[in-house]
Amino acid sequence: MNKKPAKSTPRQAESKQYVLRLFVAGQTPKSIRAIMNIKSICEENLKGRYVLDVIDLYQQPQLAQGDQIVAVPTLIKKLPPPLRRIIGDMSDTERVLVGLDLRIKSRCRENQ
Amino acid sequence: MSYTRRQLAKAPTGIQGLDEITGGGLPKGRPTLICGNTGCGKTLLAIEFLVRGATQFNEPGVFMAFEETGKDLIQNVASLGFDLKGLIARKKLALDSVYIERSEIEESGEYDLEGLFIRLGQAIDSIGAKRVVLDTIESLFAGLPNPLILRAELRRLFRWLKAKGVTAIVTGETGQETLTRQGLEEYVSDCVIVLDHRVSEQVSSRRLRVVKYRGSTHGTNEYPFLIDEDGISVLPITSLGLQQTASSRRIPTGVARLDAMLGGAGYFRGSSVLISGTAGTGKSSLAAHFAEAACRRGEKVLFFAFEESPCQIMRNMGSIGIDLQPWVKKGLLQFQATRPTFTGLERHLATIHKAINVFKPEVVIVDPLNSFIIGSNEIEVKSMLMRLMDFLKMKQITGLFTSLTTSGGSLEQSEAAISSLIDTWLLVRDIEFGGERNRGLSILKSRGMVHSNQIREFLLTDHGVELRDVYVGASGMLTGSARLTQEAQEKAAILGHDQEADFRRIELERKRTTLEAKIAVMRAEFAMEEIASVKIIGQEKAEKTQLLHDRADMGLSRQADAKPNKRTRDEE
Questions:
Q1: Does residue B140 sit at the A interface (CB-CB below 8 Å)?
Q2: A90–B119: do the CB atoms touch at under 8 Å?
Q3: What residue spans define the domains of chain A?
Q4: Is residue B220 located within the same domain as residue B306?
Q5: Residues B129 and B189 both lie in one domain
Q6: Residues β-bridged to residue B168
Q7: Domain count across chain B
Q8: Which residue range forms the structural domain that includes residue B409?
């Protein structure tokens, strides 16, 4: 696949399939916000080429150790590499896009 | 309800010494903060708390590592004999390592640490854990953004741990001004223990201090502790009080004259004996005598040598007729030889403790004590020796220590640091007189027994130590050849006296013989005179009788009667 993931440009990333996993803990307002936010971000930027699993750790606590979950909500970008984690309720769309490698981090900072 | 004082429930750590200092262990069901610098033994203490809990107190534990992977941890502590794998397999221990890579994390909005709570809860519930270690939770600050959220979450975590009723250890690195970098002491306020690892005079030492223990008394000092092949041991291993029993049984010193000086019976069993003196005064020889005497009685002796190798000691003692080899072979005598500078004091002390606990001797010899004093660590040495002596007394082991004093200074002064701990103190010293050095031995003190105040000359002969009376006379105290000369002179004088007396006796005899001879001669002369006199008297009598006869005859012849004869008789 991509040999230089760090330097992948948004244009290259567009063609890739995204595997995302969102870990939440229960139906807290934060969880609900996170689910809503990530869904809308994905629909907007990755329409048709993403898989999003939402895992409630209260239902499946054993998954927390394997995926090294400490903070919740955590979104793990399993594919494409590199692996990334985005923590929080996904309210900062720019940062989510950086985390998903849909924005280059330095430019993002300049924009801020 | 009774008003008896109720102690805070405690979870024993099982760590040597720590339970003594904390009065039973860490606060049960509460978190304890252990902080210190890198490499001070925080993780190890925490691990030992869990392992001992699981193996000795049937309290399973969860270890959550934030800095090491589980695999590393298992390997690291395996060298201490902690079999984490086995404990995990038996469901006594759960290991979870939290790995946070800052570079792969992006923060977007509010978050909490519920994931950590879930993991911890899962681990606790899976084995029914009673103990939890979080090592080092401060790593979260490096890995996760937004310290404000973290602080709030940590506060919640400790409350949650308390609610779970688990006894927790939280470790933290020492900060610049606070006990920990992130001020964890604000959240964990029940018990705070600070560890320290310092190097002084090139010798490292570890210290432990209970800074705070809410609801319980605790030792507040800095206690040395060490990490060895069996884990952590905090000193003192002995209690803080003076509660040793004192035996009135006596044991011989191995030198008959010395026994006589010490009230005729030797040292007290379980007492501390110090032999101090300048170099080459025979301290070790006295110690060897004592060791040999103890072995002869069938007692076990542990000999800590800090200057000579066992082989060297045995050779040297062989030269004065003390053969230690057979006792070593019999297993009654054991040598432990190390260089004092080899490790820190605490380690020496712990090694000594361990050796004593393993060998269980009746007599312990430390030769010499003061090689521990390097530079200005005298106070530490004193506290170490105090612990050692306490320990020996508690075990009713007789301790014999030698101490090298420097010539020049007062012999008593250099020992001031430990003299108060010593029961019997022998002083061996050089006596320089008449162009030679001789050894003198005296008893500086001996608690609880009558003892001689005399200085004895101390000889190292090929059959061991001998004590002789010194010559005390008009010219002062004499030892060595001066004493011998004096003794010879005295002997000569006595001999002279004897001869004189003999001479007089003979003279007298002679006089008596002469006198008796004279008496015999005189007696003989007298006898002759007597005979002569008697003869004359006889003659005169005869003559007189004859005269009378003649007169009577004449009367008769003149025909006179008897009357005139009678008259003449009356006239007579």
A1: yes
A2: no
A3: 16-111
A4: no
A5: yes
A6: B31, B132
A7: 2
A8: 250-469
Q: Is A30 on the interface with B (CB under 8 A)?
A: yes
Instruction: Say if the Cβ atoms of A30 and B108 lie within 8 Å.
Output: no
Residue of A64, A74, A85 lying closest to B122 (CB–CB): A64
Q: Do A71 and B112 touch (CB under 8 A)?
A: yes
Find out whether B450 and B250 touch, Cβ atoms under 8 Å: no
Output b/e per residue, B439-477; b: 16+ Cβ within 10 A.
Answer: bbbbbbebeebebbeebbbbbbeeebbebeebbeeeeee
Inform me whether the C-beta atom of residue B152 falls under 8 Å from chain A C-beta atoms: no
Q: Which amino acid is at B342?
A: F
User: The CATH number of the domain where B19 resides is what?
Assistant: 3.40.50.300
Is A57 an interface residue toward B (CB < 8 Å)?
yes
Decide: helix, strand or coil at residue B459: strand
CB under 8 Å to B450, separation ≥6 — which residues?
B263
Rounded mean pLDDT for each run of 10 residues along chain B, 572 residues in total = 63 84 87 86 88 90 87 83 86 87 84 89 90 87 84 89 91 80 76 85 78 81 78 64 72 86 86 84 87 90 87 88 88 84 72 85 86 66 77 86 70 59 84 79 85 82 80 69 80 89 92 94 92 91 88 77 51 46
The string of pLDDT tens digits covering residues A15-39 is 678 899 999 988 888 889 899 998 9
- Residues of chain B in contact with residue A83, where contact means CB-CB under 8 angstroms, are 104
Q: What is the CATH number of domain A16-111?
A: 3.40.30.10
Of the candidates B371, B369, B368, B337, which has an alpha carbon nearest to the alpha carbon of residue B351?
B337
Cross-chain residue pair A70–B98, CB shorter than 8 Å: yes
Q: Do residues B425 and B274 make contact, with C-beta atoms less than 8 angstroms apart?
A: yes
Question: Which of residues B469, B501, B529 is at a domain's end?
Answer: B469
Among the partner-chain residues A23, A62, A86, the one whose CB lies closest to the CB of B108 is: A86
